[in-house]
């Protein structure tokens, strides 16, 4: 019971620390019901969230990209669904009554202990690559408000300082402030999300300043992910 409660707490709080319980490692599966309880918190969240999106994310503990043949599968008495993962390990999580009632299993074709499983709230990517500075700040604030709702102690003293654009390679990472000097912002190696490990991606952090709300950020290529940055 303590192990199950530990998993529920970690998923519901979307904690930044790694959270894979002992029973999951032993049985090579995770409870859909437990994951559901963590994911449904965002669905029920009643405050503004129009700039946000939520996925169920799998990431390697060592920060390496997922193998090309990596699979996340939902299996129950009446179903077996492959949950496709994007380039940063996120899947659209189906909220299914039948899977909940059956307490279906979430499995991967690897050892669970090497991976972290969590709800992941991120900022929706714009197809035209044009982001109003004021909207980026609002998106970050919406994400912080949600995190404070599910984990008040962990986020009480955090502040929105910017957003992170993540790309597969450096040549794709061309992000600029429109109307400033026109130069692309610095590109570093890092994880897709600030609370992860590793340097598998090319990332650009757009930090907020006094002029943010009056400007636009232009990304020449669609990022793999767009994440709020809290400090």
UniProtKB/TrEMBL annotation:
Signal sequence region: 1-24
PROSITE patterns: PROKAR_LIPOPROTEIN (PS51257)
Entry keywords, A to Z: Signal
Protein name per Swiss-Prot or TrEMBL: DUF2987 domain-containing protein
The organism of origin for this protein: Pseudoduganella ginsengisoli
UniProt lineage: Bacteria, Pseudomonadati, Pseudomonadota, Betaproteobacteria, Burkholderiales
